[in-house]
Amino acid sequence: MSKKIRNTEVDHLFDAILTLENKEECYTFFEDVCTVNELLSISQRYEVAKMLREGKTYLDISNATGASTATISRVNRSLNYGNDGYDMVLERVLKKDE
């Protein structure tokens, strides 16, 4: 895990996020914490990760999400060389949906 982001303030933010109990609370909190564009960018990257794991092409992903090839490439790099955070969450969501 990257030590670049580990600090007390980030710990506090994550502690706060972990108190959220449902999707509506997530909307309420994140609409206050993030700008609309920040939240849309984060959600777009998550969708890109899902589609990459489904084997979609960059063109398909770009057409479906509006993400640039640079964004798709960055997400792909995180999927292949990152901390496996996307895969951890994608697996949990898949199990939950079954």
TrEMBL record:
<dbReference type="InterPro" id="IPR013368">
    <property type="entry name" value="YecD_YerC"/>
</dbReference>
<dbReference type="InterPro" id="IPR038116">
    <property type="entry name" value="TrpR-like_sf"/>
</dbReference>
<dbReference type="Pfam" id="PF01371">
    <property type="entry name" value="Trp_repressor"/>
</dbReference>
<dbReference type="InterPro" id="IPR000831">
    <property type="entry name" value="Trp_repress"/>
</dbReference>
<protein>
    <submittedName>
        <fullName>TrpR YerC/YecD</fullName>
    </submittedName>
</protein>
<dbReference type="GO" id="GO:0003700">
    <property type="term" value="F:DNA-binding transcription factor activity"/>
</dbReference>
<dbReference type="InterPro" id="IPR010921">
    <property type="entry name" value="Trp_repressor/repl_initiator"/>
</dbReference>
<dbReference type="GO" id="GO:0043565">
    <property type="term" value="F:sequence-specific DNA binding"/>
</dbReference>
